Amino acid sequence: MNSTIEAILQHRSIRHFTEQKIEDEKLELILRCANAASSSSFMQCCSIIRVSLPDVRAKLAELAGGQTYVESASEFLVFCADFNRHQQIHPDAQLGFTEQTLIGAIDTGIMGQNALLAAESLGLGGVYIGGIRNNPQQVTELLGLPKHVLPLFGMCLGYSAKLPEVKPRLPLSIVVHQERYQNLDKQELEQYDQHIKMYYASRSRNNRQTSWSEQITATLNKESRPFMQGYIEGQGFSLK
Where is the Nitroreductase domain (predicted)? Predict the structure, then answer.
């Protein structure tokens, strides 16, 4: 096992950071690694907004649901799907297709993962902030995002003050399918649910008494940002 694989398998979300700032050279390396990510048809349809101003950070933390680590992290980056740049190059560009929305989301996700893996390899930690989609229009106005730009997620980066346990993932026997899609093995799921319960019970902080299946049931029994469709269309995405 090499250091890259070790870093991937030891991933955990970091939400508590020290006051130590990320060195400029490390931040540049992280951003270069993000920018080196795979790009569909070499469209390079992603942008990163680096947010440093304390008042803007505080507002973003509020808009993301009161996630204070948006303020306390050394760096906060907002990853966006961006076709505005392409329209500036080609004003008659045919935009608004759902396929472009998918390309933008996929490429931006890959870019974010490159950034986080690079940060972790440099001894840093971080966490994705999907909460910026709680109030997408306000985030758009706050960051001055033009049409054809979608803020997909934020990312806190910094030096970890607390190192939580690695959260167990679904077993490969559930995730990986051979040749064709296979129905869920309920026995495997039950074993995983018990594993998750044991993990939460033994965790050093924020103990829970729920299984993964119970978490998923609770999450999918409520609406999930129903305003997103209208917002996405307003930004010029998924119109056709």
Answer: 8-159
